[in-house]
Amino acid sequence: MKVRVSKEREGVENPC
């Protein structure tokens, strides 16, 4: 499952 974390940081894994 790839999480889109563009609004926070590029390349950050967030289990949200």
TrEMBL record:
This is Uncharacterized protein.
